[in-house]
Structures are given as structure tokens and as C-alpha cells.
Amino acid sequence: MIMVNSNSEGKFLYRLASDLLNRFGNDIQHVAIVFNNKRPQLFLKKYLAEISGKPVWSPHFFTIQQFFAESVSMATASQLKQFFVLLSEYNKLLLKEGRKTVSADVFYPLAEIIVSDFSQIDYYLADPGKVFNLIGSIAELQHQFPNFDEEQLEFMKSFWGSFSPEKQSEIQKKFIEMWHRMPLLYENFHARLAENNLMSSARMYRNLAEGVNCNPHFIEKFSHVVFAGFNALSKAEEVLFRKWQDDGKCSFYFDADEHYYENPLQEAGHFIRRNIDSLGLHNQFEIRENRINDPEKEFTIVQTLGNITQGKILPSLLPERLKPENSDSRAIILADEGLLLPVLQTLDDEDLNITMGYPFEQSAVFGLCDLWLDIQEQIASGDGTMIDFAPVLAYIFNPLIGIEPEQRIAIHKEIIEQKKTRFTLEELSKGGQKSELTFSKYVNPTDSIKKLGSLLLIISKQVSEIRKLESLLIAEAVKTLNVLSDSFEELMNDKSAEKLSAGFVMKTIRRALAGLSVPFDGEPLSGLQVMGLLESRCLDFDELIVLGMNEGVLPKVSITASFIPDNV
Q: What separation in angstroms does the CA of 202 have from each of 69, 122, 239, 270?
């Protein structure tokens, strides 16, 4: 889809820059400007320089997480660290109950749900004791949740009715047992993180909103704080924003259009209407005229067969648009971020400004890591001395390994001519340092992580033709592996923890690496912009090409797993 938009003067960030200079003038250097993400900062800086026409001191820029982090001294715990802490505390509760502890690989899927639930509790300042309270009667239900309407009450009554003693199955009994543990697990989880001078991101929001374990006066080091482009707010943000507004310390700029703001049937305006009308946050901009329905805009819908084709037809949609003088006011928005690779394979890198991260999972470096983990899993699951020929074949032909041709030919001949199906680790480890790091026995998690990290560093140094992107990917992977090693080492020192299986260790390493992304370098404001949907917030372009605008993707259809009923 191609959409033609208005000129610079009508753009949200241009209007924001103009208003900020009019309001604060030379004092703008003492102002903090907070966005939901980093991308709008670059454009706002550009517009401030254009409008002022002279050098000016820059205001302080933050994302909302960075701004709130100014109030605390504790660091934010990584997801993996939170998992290990949660596992340790959960097993302690089980031991107190006289029950058998749960293994890490069994607990991992549950941990993701529990951490997500705890985050929701903190973001919305809920009482975990009440949220996880078992409710037996409708009278107790009405007492605990007086604001529920009849439909919600009926839903909750039927939900808890399915857990009556005579109806309970083994799964339901386990669910109720876990439900009982949640309030204490919540308290122990956060206490253990605090002992390590760590906290979750959601807990940081809660502490600041409640004025606990933080510096609530951190905002006073700025003459004023501007929150720009926000939409849906958590309860913690609502509390803080209203308090700071009442104290005259902050102001708000909402990016909205009359088309969906004035019409209550338009869901797109729901949260902005709530922020302004219900919460009483004052918008510094008047809601503009209906620009979305501008008849001069041109919309073109292009039907393609398959996702890959959407990237491949880009050259036909961009005949003259990749010229430097035209490219910076246009953008490619990826509603489906999996389309990044087709775009990169179709258009010249020099013509693009990619603001989203390159997914590590789609790189050749991850392919090597995945192969290494497969080899280690097979070694650990067997007798520890032999390995099948298939992963060996994949290893010797992996381009990043760079094995000597003579050695590769010799091993290949053994497989083909001698029909060799198994190799000993001893004979394979003689192929050099990289082979020694790959075809070795599993010892423990930290040893495996150290070997994989060493292999990546060797490859980064030895392969002279390696691209800069792959060097960045390796550096990011090694950094992640170091954090992973510290977490595993702490868990191994925990006496209440069971021995970790090799399979779980390899799966955890694979999960951690698969979630990585590496940002692209380059001039931030030149070239055709390529970004994800969320990165485009607050930004306006003269022309947009949106890829992957399919049902189920935009809007995204997903169900978040949770132990908390939706109506709660």
C-alpha cells in the first residue's frame, strides 16, 4: 500500500519542535523529552535545528523506561536472570510443602507465564493477594471486586465454579495449588532480586508510582518534562502522569486525528480519549482537522502471492524514489517484521536506512551456533564418545568454520566410500582448535557456554572475508553468552536446585541467541527508511509502503497465556 501524506509543517514532530522552541526558548536545554521509543528523537533534533536556524543546546531525550530508570539505583534483571530466581524461589516453596522440586526444563514454560502475570500486577498496581485469592461464593466475589458488572460477576462465578471439590481433576488440583503459592512467590521473587540489587522493569514502575525504594524527586533536576506521542498507559503511568501534571512539572503532546478521536465508535481513539477526557491529561495540541479522510491522498493496494513476493516487487514501486533527494521523506513499514530479509535481498543496502534490528536467528552465525548446539546435544544424549555422520558433514561444509580442504575431503571420502556412519570424538577433535571446541564431551553449562563463545571469537578473528554485520552479530552473541554463564553459575551454586540437564542447557542457549537482534549502523536520517510498525509511532512521511498488511498481522491476532482470568 502507498499513501501520500502532507508536508513537513503538518507533521507531528515538526509542530512539536516549533511549540517547544516557542514555550521554552533557550531554556530548552534543561527540558526532558520522553518518547515511547528512540526513533522520534532523531527527527525532533533535526526539526529543532531547522526551525531555530542557529545552534541550540539539545534537550535531554529519554525513552519512558530510561526516564523511569533515573529514579532507581538498581539495575533491571534480564529475562534469564528472572527465570533462574523464580525457579529457585518456587522450588524453595515446594520443599517447605514437602513436595518434590521441579526441574528447570519443566518449569520454563510456566515461568514465562508467571513472570508475565507478575509484570501485569506491577504495571497496574494490583494487590497480588487479592488477584490470586480463591473465591468460593458470589457474595465473596462481590466483596472482593465491587466494581464488576453483572456480566463479569457471572463469568467469574462460572470460572471458579469449575473448581468445586467434587469436579476437580488432577490438572485443576495442580492449578489451585500453584494459585495458592502465587502471592508468596511474588513477594519472595522480588525480595530475592532486590538482594542482588536487581528489579524487574514492571517493579520499577510500581516502586516509582508508590514512592518506594526510589528517588521520587529525580524529576526536579529538569526544569520541565514533556511526554510526547503516548497512547495506552498502564495504571502506574497514569498515577505518575497525573501527579506530575498537578505539580506543574510536565505536559503532554498527543498525536491524534479528529477522524478517530471525536467518534466514540473508532477504537483507534479509545486510549487518547481516555487520557484526555477521563484521566484529565491536558493535550498541548488541539486535535487537528480530519486529515485521514483527505481526498487528495492516494491509496494503492497491491495484491501478491506469498510474503516473499511483497519484498521482490519493491523495485517496481520505487522507480524514481531511491534518489537521495527523495528518499528521506519516504518509508517502508513492515507490519510483518519477517519480511526484512526479502527487502534486504531486493534493494541495495546503500539506499536503505534500517532502524529495526537484524534478527540474529536469520543469520549464518546463528546457523553455526544452532549446529554446534545440535552436536553437543547429540553427544550428551549418547555415550559421550561417538557422534553420527550427519552433523559432522554439516560441520565440515559450514562456510564460517573454514575447515582445511584436505581435511574436509578426507572426512567426506570416509563417509561416502567407506560408508562410515559414526565418528569418535577423539578422531574429530584432532582437526584443530575449532573442532576441539565442537566435538567435546558435555561437562556443565558454563563450560559449554565458554566453548561456544571461544569458537565464535576464533571465527571472528580468523575469517578475513567476514562482513561487518556478522562481526556485530558475533559480538552481541558473545555478550549474551557471558550474561547466560553468570546466571547458570549462580543456579549451579544454589543447593536447592537440581542438576541441569544438557538438553535444557542447550535449549536455553538457543532461546537466548534466537531472541537477539543487532541494530544497523549508518546515517540515521538519510536513505529510504525501513522500520517496524511500532517504530513508526510519532513519525510522518510523505509516502508509505506497508508490507505484510494482512489479516491476522494488522491487527495482530494473539492470545497471551496467563494464570489470571481475563475479567480479573
A: 11, 5, 14, 24
